[in-house]
Specification:
Length: 345
């Protein structure tokens, strides 16, 4: 304890914040003082409740910083205003915080889940994920890899030791999952809202779509511009979920979202022009995977320790390494390993 009594003061601050949550937040909110806890027990922070502490750990992690150089939809686009995996994550976080605040749910928890939900994503977006899933005998799913990242890969193998609620929200942020907290369910919706909104915005910027291409039956329900649709999604989610023990869009808006996602898959996510480089990206990922599987000694020490001390399969460890790369680093590694250089004396 600090000699000036700072820790005692800090503990009082944390307890006041926890009490404020109990008194102000919705009865359906996840309270910091009622968290299921961490994988490893540790002393509480003297000023921050547990979810705020998790948010800070994610924000200061190396895997979070790498998101700035990972593809969202368009591979290494030439332009300053296209989204990356990092800007996507920030937009998910902001959507989720807006919704949580309006519903009086735990804003720190949604922010921690949102900032951590894509930490395990590969370079080159879903093309990289497909490549590793196809070639690794254990498969590869970015939501599971995000949990693995915070549990055992961050901090040179120590992990971030996050709370169960944050880890659950990260694991279940995709459509196939269902978090057990309302905060996790908010992030699950916020992820879809964010990527539908900004991927269409980027597609319009890139000349692949026009606003007028969106079917009228969708526009009549949720709006005719990207801004109108984003606003409508968030307002509808708040209105339809207000003072309920669940998070849902209204049936009409849920149906419009489903149709809009299908439209985006048809016109953008499977667009030959937008995806013309993905086969190359998949080949690059497969080549790096095969190379490091044959040259395990070139992996970082903390990953080698996962095999030697924990008995983990080499294939998983290679996925850990290649899957964590940024687009730029993966390209540089490929060039270094496979592209011959001019000889000079």
């Amino acid at each position: 304890m600090r000699k000036d009594g700072g820790s005692a003061v800090g503990m009082l601050i944390r307890e006041k914040l926890e009490q404020w949550e109990k008194e102000y937040l919705s009865p359906y909110a996840s309270l910091s003082m009622q968290s299921k806890g961490r994988i490893r027990e540790e002393e509480q922070c003297d000023i921050r409740p547990v979810y705020q502490r998790d948010r800070d750990r994610i924000l200061h992690s190396k895997s979070f910083r790498r998101l700035k150089d990972k593809t969202q939809v368009f591979l290494t686009p030439e332009g300053d205003h296209y989204r990356t995996r990092l800007t996507h994550t920030l937009e998910v976080s902001q959507n989720a915080r807006t919704i949580a605040k309006a519903l009086r749910l735990n804003e720190d928890l949604v922010e921690a889940i949102a900032l951590g939900h894509d930490l395990g994503h590969t370079p080159f977006g879903h093309a990289g994920e497909r490549a590793l899933n196809a070639i690794c005998p254990y498969g590869f799913c970015h939501s599971e890899q995000s949990v693995r990242t915070v549990d055992v890969l961050e901090k040179n193998g120590q992990g971030l030791n996050l709370t169960d609620e944050v880890r659950d929200g990260i694991r279940n942020h995709q459509t196939k999952g269902m978090p057990y907290t309302l905060e996790g369910k908010i992030v699950r919706y916020s992820d879809k809202i964010a990527y539908i909104h900004h991927d269409m915005d980027d597609a319009i910027r890139g000349g692949i779509l026009k606003e007028s291409d969106v079917p009228a039956e969708i526009g009549e329900v949720i709006g005719f511009t990207t801004g109108e649709r984003l606003d409508h999604f968030i307002h509808d989610l708040v209105t339809y979920s207000y003072e309920k023990d669940d998070i849902h869009l209204s049936p009409a808006v849920e149906d419009a979202m489903r149709k809009l996602r299908s439209f985006m898959f048809e016109r953008v996510y499977q667009n030959k022009a937008a995806k013309s480089q993905e086969a190359k990206a998949e080949m690059l990922m497969e080549s790096l995977y095969q190379y490091y599987l044959k040259h395990l000694h070139k992996l970082p020490p903390h990953l080698l320790a996962r095999m030697e001390e924990h008995g983990e399969a080499p294939e998983m460890i290679v996925c850990d390494y290649v899957g964590a790369m940024t687009d730029r680093f993966a390209i540089a590694q490929y060039e270094e390993l496979f592209i011959p250089k001019s000889w000079h004396y």
